[in-house]
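Re: the multi-chain job from yesterday

Posting the exact lines I submitted so nobody has to dig through the queue logs.
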Amino acid sequence: MARWQDVNGIYQIYPRSFKDTNGDGVGDIAGITEKLDYIKGSTSSLGVDAIWTSPFYRSPMADFGYDISDYYSIDPLFGDLEDFKVFISEAHDRNIKVMVDYVPNHTSDEHPWFIASKSSRDNDKRDWYVWRDPKPDGSPPNNWISVFGGSAWEFDEESGQYYVHSFLTKQPDLNWDNPAVRKAMMDVLDFWLELGVDGIRADAVRWISKDSLLRDDIPNEEFKTGEDPFNALIHRYSRYGESLFDYLKEMAATVEKHPDRIILFEDYIDNHLDLHEQYADFYAVNPSVAAPFNFEGMHTAYSARAFRSYIDDFQKMLTSEQRPFYCFSNHDMPRLASRFGEKQARLIALLQLTLPGIPVVYYGDELGMHNVEIPPEAVQDPFEKQTQLGLGRDPERTPMQWSDEENAGFTTGKPWLPLASDYKERNVESESTNSDSLFSMYRTLLELRRSSALRTGVYDEWSDSNDSVFGYTRQSEYEKLLILLNMSDVDGVCGQCFIGGVICDTHKSVELSISQHLILQPHQGVIIRCKT
Ligand code: NOJ
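And the result, structure tokens for all chains:
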């Protein structure tokens, strides 16, 4: 099995939507196992070395598995522990690493820990969650709000106290300041690592430490109506508490006990904090096993200037031992093809898969799947149900498009979310036999990442970047690659003399002779192997 340092990419699977084997309309673990050849191991595979699966643990599914009622078992909807063991062993047989989701900030309110905690003020699990008395007028202890809307505090009539939930009321936050909680959560990590998982994606970590004085968050003067209500406050005290990085170090130390494992932290950049300091703090946790995702590409405008400044800046900030994990989309963000446009999605793929580190690709983006409009009666996402702002996450979670069969070959039952209307044309079967497809481009790029300068080559700025074209080089001892991306609607002139050969082209149209100036068509991206 490849070591993490040689992994060419991570493929995120949202289990509910990948492949259903029992006809209940929801994907399952046996479905992921069935489709492992799609990921790696056969001549038509995508060719990615690792997968990350979103949660499959026992859960009432209020937040589709991010509300866990038993960290040690698999929800019957997805199968059982035996299915998981088969899955991991089959994945390892194909040299695919498996990363699983870890949800440390909150449990389900149906978790036995919370049931005990809620049962009385004297219960020995009371202090496993964050309970506080009301203010004298009966209102919540402070102004903190939940990511999913409304106060972050829920009143419990029986015990006369509030508990904090940074997400749904059904997702009470654990009290990480309690050493017994930390011990229990380290045991969870050990269990899955001992079972053979290769990596951990740690959910919503910034909330695990809160201000010990529980001070009010700060009103955001720039908030506009219609925006996500969560932006009404600057979340200065409800997260990034003083012990956050100590707790993350404990997690990393647990992971480090097991050889060649990693832990990736989910952390979106908080615009009210210093960008570089945030990255530096997360990387300082333990650079040999831990890193934050880089999500900036999810919010960066599609322009050569914006991407140049984002990537050049971030690359410059990294030290040689800090590894980037560029993640441009996931189950919480609109799909690449919808956010950037269909043509643009090819260029974005070329960009993401030519950057250093390990790119994280969301299932279906390799086919150009787009956001699907969800009629009101079909809405599933609790966030959308609660806010009704049209910001829900169902559109990017629709079933994987395997073939032109009924329900795209995803299920023989009724899919839990509607399928995209274009699935008959846009699917694995049709794209894997078409050498011009987006899927084929992903395959080519993932293959190139195995051996070329894309694997270990040093990233360098390309000084001739302009308003249309963003460029950079990747150079190893043996090879120098120049990546040029025209992120505009007009022809992009690359004002330099080129000597080399094109080894990948989003438009399949450039032919470079020995030396020439290059003009790229709108949204065209190329990799040039430079003659040195
Ligand atoms: C982040 C996850 O990605 C998201 O899907 C979930 O709703 C929240 N954390 C709460 O766990």
